[in-house]
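Record type: ASSEMBLY
Status: queued
Input:
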Amino acid sequence: PEESQSVVFDHAVEQLVPTELSLLLESLPIEARCARWLQVPDELKTSVLLGMRYQARDSIFLAMDESTLDLILRSLDAECLIELADNLTEEQIEKAFSYLDSKQQNWYQGAAEFDEKHIGRYADHKLVTIPPNAKARDALRALKRGTIDLCDQVFVVDKQGLFLGVIPVSMLLKEKDPMRMVRGMIETVPITVLGTDPLITATETLEHSGGYSLPIVDNDGRLVGRITQATALWIMKEHFESQLMAKVGLTESADLFVPVFKGARQRAVWLGLNLLTAFLASWTIGLFENVLSQVVALAVLMPVVASMGGIAGSQTLTLIIRGLATKQVTFRNSWALSKQELGIALFNGVGWAAVIGVVTWYWFESGVIGLVIGIAVMANILVAALSGVYIPLILDKCKFDPALSGAVVLTTVTDVVGFVTFLGLGTLLIL
Amino acid sequence: PEESQSVVFDHAVEQLVPTELSLLLESLPIEARCARWLQVPDELKTSVLLGMRYQARDSIFLAMDESTLDLILRSLDAECLIELADNLTEEQIEKAFSYLDSKQQNWYQGAAEFDEKHIGRYADHKLVTIPPNAKARDALRALKRGTIDLCDQVFVVDKQGLFLGVIPVSMLLKEKDPMRMVRGMIETVPITVLGTDPLITATETLEHSGGYSLPIVDNDGRLVGRITQATALWIMKEHFESQLMAKVGLTESADLFVPVFKGARQRAVWLGLNLLTAFLASWTIGLFENVLSQVVALAVLMPVVASMGGIAGSQTLTLIIRGLATKQVTFRNSWALSKQELGIALFNGVGWAAVIGVVTWYWFESGVIGLVIGIAVMANILVAALSGVYIPLILDKCKFDPALSGAVVLTTVTDVVGFVTFLGLGTLLIL
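Status: finished
Output:
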């Protein structure tokens, strides 16, 4: 197997496809990864690094020799330097900065003012700017001179760097009067994105605009760069990957291979948090030791009660979290949603409670136990529906990310409610 | 609250933002949704429908009068008709088809040959084609005539519809000789996407190409349309949303509000499946009734053992499923991954087993119970790590989607293994 993997790698090196090489390097254990890295041709090294996730990239930086590092630092532009900044020391960033030309230095400083949550930091700078007193002819020339393939509009910027507006390329191409002043061609109200807009907000503004790119301006109205659909694509990817990883307490940057101890530490926090909730569930069960020691069937059936509540609740939770992200779920329609979810829960609660009650009745030859578990399952599914609506709403209100902590809180609730009703009813009706 | 929601809606209607209206309509209960729909201006109706999810859209189609339906059918182009086809009857599709001009009819027929998993079905047709014997000048003219804002390249297509190649717009703009034949300007090996490529594959090809659009061709080499970054963006969104929804047995098209019975039915299957696994866990526990009735502490502590295995396993599972999607995880590196995951599991297993053992020892004043749960937790975490690597690999090999079923299978394994080791050890060491 090691053999065949190296064949794949050699092939990718020959084909010079940086993204493939990035993926392949990430899929190797650290030692093999660093060995293979040496085979990456110098001219691809920077793109290959940029295509990797933060942690995987870090493992390569840690093993990198001085001359390769210098080679990479020399090859960066403002955007790449921003992207790699977290992997670099202050000193290395300064060095790379000194290698930039003055235009790139300006872009870098503009972007570095924003933090990682803001779109300004990830502004794209492959754009064509022209002064307001240029003519249509000049704009077309600037466009032809530019080596930029993806130019849907040119940006009009004055001497102070203030953003004045955009002119679509299609309009420039159609303009009959080559001497027309650019200032007069500016579309009335250009949609702009603020540098301090959160990443997802900026992506949505772009999507709703229907265009390929939008200008990003800072609070003083200066052009910071542009956001393009290419940027939107990776923001979207990272956003969803973060959500998927957050469900198990990990981050998007998590690497398949990290030093074992480091990996263990990253995951330990989540295990510990969940241990607390498990102990809480155990403590709840412990309140009913008396009935448990006399009716062992209750102990046997506990997973059924917990599972039904947990699953039903997580269905509601998932729908609500998605709706929160698009702002379709708010406290405003939460009551309508609760009615909807309670209605669904009533159908499934009654139906499955009946099934479980009957199975239990036959299994343990006890109608009472069947009744107890039936009621407990139904109650738990109803509580789960309400919790599924309100837990994410409340977490969101309190500025916690429901995608991260919603499921933990929800299963804690359904576990505790499930065990209390089940074992509590058991104590009342059986003992 | 109802009041304020209608204010928001009226505002969006005034601003004429179709995507906002789509989101708002989706956030309303069906009755209110259909009432509000009547307020949407006719000229926005089609875009508003297109911006909604399948199920929500369906609720509006069900309440739609004949004349509005006809208005919408008349306003569709080939792409929109494909998008709405699932909401329409055969008859309605035929009617809409008859309203298309012959060019759009061709595009529609070309796209309809592909099924929902294939990129050909979702081809974009806002493109400029030119014949190979045209001149650079003609191509530029076609470009200026086109009302298409986002044109990064023109597509060279012969009389039979065969795709010959692309010419970047930047190249056309720079061309000095207006009489140069387009045939001679074609780039040597254009990257193309096959109409039968799966959606995600096509998206990746586009991403790796670094461009804005790529031609889509059918098996006979005819141009079907193009894939653009805008298409890639919604494919990516639906892909990740499907994954998030699949984790709770729902689909991406799920609506916040559906008729309650329909909603209950959609969720019932998943509850039933999980009930089976819960019963399996219960049955496993039932094998140890003897020890449970004598040592009630074991019943109390069961959630801790199950939870630790389930959480640790889901962390591995999530990493592996993500790696499978990028083809970074295969059977080829599964052994290296197992070693990695087992290493991490050993750290966390030993660490948390010790914590849990000591807590248990103090809680129940029994060293043996502490020892039993410690060993069980450690064993379960180790098994969870291995299962987290191999369950998704095997599911994938058997053509099951690990994102859908991986978690169910995994928790079944960790539940059963956890209960057997914990209660089995308890029987051996305590009784």
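Annotation: Chain A touches chain B through 112 residues (CB under 8 Å).
Annotation: The CA atoms of residues 337 and 389 of chain A lie 7 Å apart.
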